[in-house]
Amino acid sequence: MRPLFHSSLVNDPFGDPGVYVDCLFEKRAVLFDLGDVRALAPRKILRVSDVFVSHAHMDHFMGFDWLLRICLGRSVVIRLYGPVGLVDQVGSRLAGYTWNLVDSYETDLELIVTELLSESSARRARFRCKREFVREGEETLTVTDGVLHSEEAFRVRCALLDHKTPCLAFALEEDRHLNVWKNRLDELGVPTGPWLAGFKRAVRRGMPDDTPITVAWQDRDGPHERVFPLGELRDSALRIVPGQKIAYVTDVVYSDANAARITRLAQGADVLFIEAPFLDVDAERAAARFHLTARQAGTLARACGAKAVVPFHFSPRYEDGGAALTQEFFAAYGVAGEAVPVAQDG
């Protein structure tokens, strides 16, 4: 079964935090945090449709300008989500540039920015290139069960954490994974193709079994078209399994309240990316800087029941290449599950 989401660190564990999630089959990607993202090829940045910012410390937000630079001059919509203050911070970054010529652009880049005001409310504003990125369309939203973004294929939840400033952890949750059996389609005498998107959409929406699904294609013999009842096609050619869950946790002090929120958000994650900046011998330093130790991070990963884990955001004070941090993390995490390769995305 091919997973829908392919996730990897943007940089190595000592670099700026960030996770790039490629959405297979959809020609788009999701980005967690926006620090130094120059390791991502422009073609990958141009796939990004949604950016989830944990907080606006420089190592988590300095890449906003690079994202803007790559996407400027293209007709794209990018949604950004983060803690309270993000709308003002995006507006300030945009106001730092002169936009006197953009009204002649044939394209129109739009940024839709949502900031979490509380666990139950959010604020949203829009910035359009052709309008010289003035702030407009402001509205207040209701947030239910931490859901910041929701669409047919997946949703993204958040948890509000303490980093001596509001900081968000995120969990990307696939609704259900719909896996097409190509050999079954072969038996039915139909090929794969664009029609599959509409078919999967109908299944996700729970449409009636007698809903007609039109399969159209063209080959060297000319155009072809067949119509199947949704239920028949679903039962014969589709395998429906629980969807993936990818969690991202960084820049948080260890406390009972934070631990409870992290555990609830990331419970059962297929992959958990979690910061592990300090050794436990430096726990006082970690607490003073509102970060986790590797042992605390491993303990949280174990409590979450994460199937695979990626510790990152290592402090440069340790000169052994991260060996001690990694060892301490996995000793606390235990033998269950597996580590995910942490090579940077390119």
Relative strand content? 25-35%
Distance from N terminus to C terminus (CA atoms, Å) equals: 24 Å
Strand tally, please? 19
- Low-confidence segments, ≥5 residues, pLDDT <50? 340-344
Series of secondary-structure elements, N-terminal to C-terminal: EEEHEHHEHEEEEEEEHHEEHEEHEHHEHE
Q: What is the CATH topology descriptor of the largest domain?
A: Metallo-beta-lactamase, Chain A
Sheet having the most strands? 8 strands, mixed
> Strand order of the main beta sheet, please?
1-2-3-4-5-6-7-8
**Spatial extent as radius of gyration:** 22 Å
How many helix segments? 11
CATH architecture of the largest domain: 4-Layer Sandwich
Q: What this model shows, in words?
A:
By secondary structure, the protein is an alpha/beta fold. The chain folds into two domains: 5-175 and 243-339, Metallo-beta-lactamase, Chain A, CATH 3.60.15; 179-240, no CATH class. 26% of the residues lie in helices and 34% in strands. The chain has eleven helices and 19 strands. It has an eight-stranded mixed beta sheet, with helices on one face. A hairpin with a 2-residue loop joins β6 (110-118) and β7 (121-128). The longest helix has 11 residues, at 256-266. The radius of gyration is 22 Å and the shape is globular. The model is unreliable at 340-344 (pLDDT under 50).
